[in-house]
Amino acid sequence: MEKSEVLRLTGKKILKIREQKGFTQLDLAARIQGDFDTTNVSRIESGRTNPTIYTLFRIAEALEVSLADLVIDEVKD
């Protein structure tokens, strides 16, 4: 699998979980530990940036899911 596809699928999974929880991008950014901007959430969800493991960990904590839940192989629509 290409890097771009991994980033896209991971972002899509984060978006799906965020929406299931009823959070906006602003809500999620506010819940993430440390300084985090909504533009970062947008870039990650669209697969336009490669987040660090620590950033994914912080997102998982904010969404109250495991890190593994964010990095599955496929996203089912």
TrEMBL record:
The keyword Transmembrane belongs to this UniProt entry's keyword annotation: no
Keywords: DNA-binding
Domain of life from the UniProt record: Bacteria
Coiled-coil segments on the chain, per record: none
UniProt xrefs under InterPro entries: Cro/C1-type_HTH, Lambda_DNA-bd_dom_sf, TransReg_Diox_bact_type
CDD domains: HTH_XRE
SMART domains, per database record: HTH_XRE
Domain HTH cro/C1-type, first and last residues per copy: 14-70
PANTHER family on file: HTH-TYPE TRANSCRIPTIONAL REGULATOR, METHYLPHOSPHONATE SYNTHASE
Name this polypeptide is given: Helix-turn-helix transcriptional regulator
Lineage, top ranks: Bacteria, Pseudomonadati, Bacteroidota, Flavobacteriia, Flavobacteriales
